[in-house]
């Protein structure tokens, strides 16, 4: 098992470059299934375990997929298979995003039931409601969801009960090849939705209104491959902005798009963090003292749930009482228990947590409970007294490329080692002196 070891107390400075967005690339690769002609070339693809998983899903569905130099090339022109088995869906819930494209292309899709995960039960009823409205018959049998349509999907008017990101994406993909027009109301407005719509349009599709709450998709007979570059990852960018802020550092986050992060920028400014929008990125300067604020996660453009745990790390160091309310997922506070090992006092009250800072964070052995929790624990470790050792890095690798390496390049005292070879594999000169302290 691997672990990341971080020793707190270093201000970060320098430039860090943001990767392509994980939450964009997964639906975009799923959408390449829609192309019955030509190859799709997807650029700025991060080397994340989730990307390898979605590529495997496509290969399993009879596509040819190449991944080199941050570019994924997909040829989906052969007849497609229709089943995404449990082994992939278990690894990554976003595998369910192939369902809309498969159903539209082949008239059938079989996807293993995704089940819950550490952050909540995560049902997909809104995805299925959309497919049914377009004429599909949906069954759940033997642990699989099966959707089938006798002829072609038909455009429909669909209202989502909640602006679900995945449901908006899956329905958009299905509607792209349906007969007639689909109007999707109360759709998600995340930048990743706009990125997916841009790809579908580049493939010959007709999607308007992505990024607003009403999306109109006029179905076309056929789509072709396209060349598309993924937008920068606003959550990775936000995580490095918090890293700069928490250490009182000065970091340029290259590639960060401020318009994608207005709620985060507003909250960081309220806390006293200096943020300057520059050409091709944002510069973040952390203050001597951080101010406490309250945060409520919401669908975009509200505060992103995917930044909730990282903000919790930052608010632990703020002066005064802060409250975070999580409204998107019902169980996204698993990291609180791990933070408590670091000598901090966090109270959970229903869907909110309350903190009274600044905390005297102490290094500890902690385990990542999910992807963003992994990042948050490392962020806390950057300002902890002594060493923090973070395990369960499979979560981190789903969403961050070389996280420890990027932090080290900004001056953090951090290494990644095999657990049993903690000392011999340590590469940091600074840390190796008393790594077992
Ligand atoms: C790969 C990807 O892009 N993942 C992101 C996507 O996940 P994902 O697409 O799964 O998130 P959704 O927006 O669909 O889910 C938000 C909430 O709606 C509920 N829900 C969703 C669909 C449904 O049919 N029924 C239902 O009840 C979910 O359980 C959850 O409580 O958006 C989330 C919310 O911004 C982010 O945290 C994830 O990082
Ligand atoms: C929850 C997340 O991702 P996923 O939906 O892929 O689990 C995330 O990116 O924080």
How would you sum up this structure, described in words?
- There is one protein chain.
- Strands 20, 21, 22, 23 and 24 form a five-stranded mixed sheet that branches.
- The chain is α/β, with parallel strands linked by helices and 437 residues long.
- Bound molecules: uridine-diphosphate-N-acetylglucosamine and phosphoenolpyruvate (PEP).
- The site of uridine-diphosphate-N-acetylglucosamine has 20 residues, from helix 1, helix 5 and helix 6.
- Uridine-diphosphate-N-acetylglucosamine binds next to helix 1, helix 5 and helix 6.
Query: What is the rounded distance between the termini?
Result: 21 Å
CATH superfamily of the largest domain: Enolpyruvate transferase domain
Tell me the CATH architecture of the largest domain. Answer: Alpha-beta prism
Radius of gyration: 22 Å
Provide keyphrases for this structure.
about 425 residues; alpha/beta; UDP-n-acetylglucosamine1-carboxyvinyl-transferase, Chain; four-stranded mixed beta sheet; 15 helices; about 25% strand; binds uridine-diphosphate-N-acetylglucosamine
Short description:
31% of the residues lie in helices and 27% in strands. The chain has 15 helices and 27 strands.
List strands and helices in order, with pairings.
Elements: E1 2-7, E2 13-17, H1 22-31, E3 35-37, E4 39-43, H2 49-60, E5 64-68, E6 71-75, E7 83-84, H3 86-91, H4 98-106, E8 108-112, H5 125-133, E9 137-141, E10 144-148, E11 157-159, H6 165-176, E12 181-185, H7 191-202, E13 206-208, E14 214-218, E15 223-224, E16 227-229, H8 234-246, E17 250-254, H9 262-270, E18 274-278, E19 281-285, E20 290-291, E21 294-296, H10 308-316, E22 318-325, H11 334-340, E23 346-349, E24 352-357, E25 365-367, H12 371-382, E26 387-391, H13 394-399, H14 403-409, E27 413-418, H15 429-432
Parallel strand pairs: 2-17, 3-15, 4-16, 7-8, 11-12, 20-22, 21-22, 25-26
Antiparallel strand pairs: 1-26, 1-27, 4-6, 5-6, 8-10, 9-10, 12-14, 13-14, 17-19, 18-19, 22-24, 23-24
Helix pairs in contact: 1-2, 1-7, 4-6, 5-6, 6-7, 8-10, 8-12, 10-12, 11-12
């Amino acid at each position: 098992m691997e672990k990341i070891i971080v020793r707190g107390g270093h201000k970060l400075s320098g430039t860090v470059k943001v990767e392509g967005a994980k939450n964009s690339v997964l639906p975009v690769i799923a959408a390449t299934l829609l192309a019955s002609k030509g190859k799709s070339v997807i650029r700025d693809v991060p080397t994340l375990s989730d990307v390898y998983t979605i590529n495997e899903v496509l290969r399993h569905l009879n596509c040819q997929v190449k991944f080199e130099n941050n570019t994924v090339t997909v040829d989906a022109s052969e007849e497609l298979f229709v089943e995404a088995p449990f082994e992939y869906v278990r690894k990554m819930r976003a595998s369910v995003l192939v369902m809309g494209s498969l159903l539209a292309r082949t008239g059938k899709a079989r996807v293993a039931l995704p089940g819950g995960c550490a952050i909540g039960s995560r049902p997909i009823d809104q995805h299925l409601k959309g497919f049914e409205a377009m004429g599909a018959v949906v069954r759940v049998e033997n642990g699989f969801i099966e959707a089938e349509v006798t002829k072609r999907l038909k455009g429909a008017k669909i209202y989502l009960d909640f602006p679900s990101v995945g449901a908006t994406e899956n329905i958009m993909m299905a509607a792209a090849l349906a007969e007639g027009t689909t109007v999707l109301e109360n759709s998600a407005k995340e930048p990743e939705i706009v990125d997916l719509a841009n790809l579908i349009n580049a493939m010959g599709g007709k999607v308007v209104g992505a990024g607003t709450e009403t999306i109109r998709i006029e179905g076309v007979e056929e789509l072709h491959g396209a060349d598309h570059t993924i937008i920068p990852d606003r959550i990775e960018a936000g995580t490095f902005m918090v890293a700069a802020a928490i250490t009182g550092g000065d970091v340029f986050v290259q590639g960060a798009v401020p318009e994608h992060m207005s709620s985060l920028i507003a909250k960081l400014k309220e806390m006293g963090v200096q943020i300057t929008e520059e050409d091709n990125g944002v510069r973040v300067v952390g203050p001597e003292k951080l101010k406490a604020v309250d945060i409520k996660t919401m669908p975009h453009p509200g505060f992103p749930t995917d930044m909730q745990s990282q903000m919790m790390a930052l608010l632990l160091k703020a002066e005064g009482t802060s409250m975070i309310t999580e409204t998107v997922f019902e169980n996204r506070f698993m990291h609180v228990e791990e933070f408590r090992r670091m000598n901090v006092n966090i109270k959970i009250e229903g869907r909110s947590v309350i903190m009274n800072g600044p905390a005297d964070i102490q290094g500890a052995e902690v385990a990542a409970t999910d992807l963003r929790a992994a990042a948050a624990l490392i962020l806390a470790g950057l300002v902890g007294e002594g060493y923090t050792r973070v395990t369960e890095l499979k979560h981190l690798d789903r969403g961050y490329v070389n996280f420890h390496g990027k932090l080290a390049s900004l001056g953090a005292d951090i290494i990644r080692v095999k657990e049993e070879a903690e000392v011999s594999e340590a590469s940091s000169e600074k840390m190796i002196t008393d790594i077992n302290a």
